[in-house]
């Protein structure tokens, strides 16, 4: 079964070239971090993936990453979406470079997959071949290792994580027990790139199987 990609959308972006010291303190910024890039996006896990990728391709760190409760459908405003992310860097050019990476990832590299025609049922099974600083810290692994980033609705995620763990030589690095802020569930699994790919494939297939036969056990 071929699943159709669901791409996220950046809703708002702002650069702070020289952040006020009192605000910098709230983000616990390093002394060399003077500039911020702030963005909101319609899908939180895509935003997280984009933040992590930016830390690999620009001289920036992800200093804030928060999902909004219940998701984009009940957002606080038209530009809120489902997630807010903040990158910090030494100057405006670096945080702009980081935002360029964020935009590229969101527009073409990371996406959810629709399980039904209405696109109301979806999953995220994304393999990161080499982690940046943000997801490495989240997963408790060395930077540059591989991850399978797996997200689905609550029951589907729980069942499919078990299938993913059994499919290949991966370890459970982080469990997002349902419900998350956006009412999904998921995990970060670590291992070789091949193992993470096999785990993502098994996760995807398990979620699809549930969608096709939801009450058959």
Automatic annotation (TrEMBL):
<dbReference type="GO" id="GO:0005198">
    <property type="term" value="F:structural molecule activity"/>
</dbReference>
<dbReference type="InterPro" id="IPR030983">
    <property type="entry name" value="EutL"/>
</dbReference>
<dbReference type="GO" id="GO:0031469">
    <property type="term" value="C:bacterial microcompartment"/>
</dbReference>
<dbReference type="InterPro" id="IPR037233">
    <property type="entry name" value="CcmK-like_sf"/>
</dbReference>
<dbReference type="InterPro" id="IPR000249">
    <property type="entry name" value="BMC_dom"/>
</dbReference>
<feature type="domain" description="BMC circularly permuted">
    <location>
        <begin position="113"/>
        <end position="217"/>
    </location>
</feature>
<dbReference type="InterPro" id="IPR009193">
    <property type="entry name" value="EutL_PduB"/>
</dbReference>
<keyword id="KW-1283">Bacterial microcompartment</keyword>
<protein>
    <submittedName>
        <fullName>Ethanolamine utilization microcompartment protein EutL</fullName>
    </submittedName>
</protein>
<dbReference type="Pfam" id="PF00936">
    <property type="entry name" value="BMC"/>
</dbReference>
<dbReference type="InterPro" id="IPR044870">
    <property type="entry name" value="BMC_CP"/>
</dbReference>
